[in-house]
UniProtKB/TrEMBL annotation:
One of its GO terms (molecular function) is DNA binding. Pfam families: HxlR. The lineage of its organism: Bacteria, Pseudomonadati, Bacteroidota, Cytophagia, Cytophagales. Keywords: DNA-binding, Transcription, Transcription regulation. The keyword Coiled coil does not apply. This is DNA-binding transcriptional regulator, HxlR family. The keyword Transcription regulation applies. Transmembrane segments: none annotated.
Length: 103
């Protein structure tokens, strides 16, 4: 006997999408640090203990592709890149703070 599929269960809980976007190596830490100020890659390497270049790079790219961070190239010398919360990322700050409060 097979169980009929419920289309609602396939969509999942609305909070599930946010949790998936913020899950993964270093993503919650990066998001939390982005709340405070613009982020630079080397600064993140120093601030997040145990991180490495590859995993940090992957996490930043994923957060950017999910629309939570925006990447900005600063044309001043020395040339550098900063990551800031996007409008979508800013809209999730209250939810993120509530999640932090539960711990």
């Amino acid at each position: 006997m097979t169980t009929p599929k419920n289309p609602k269960s396939e969509e999942g809980c609305p909070a599930e999408g946010l949790l998936k976007q913020l899950s993964g190596k270093w993503k919650p830490q990066i998001f939390r640090l982005a709340l405070e100020s613009p982020l630079r890659f080397n600064s993140l390497l120093r601030q997040i203990q145990g991180s490495n270049r590859q995993s940090l790079s992957v996490a930043l790219k994923e957060l950017e592709s999910e629309g939570l961070l925006e990447k900005t190239v600063i044309q001043l010398k020395p040339l550098h890149i900063e990551y800031v919360l996007s409008e979508r990322g800013k809209s999730l700050v209250a939810v993120f703070r509530q999640l932090e409060g539960l711990l």
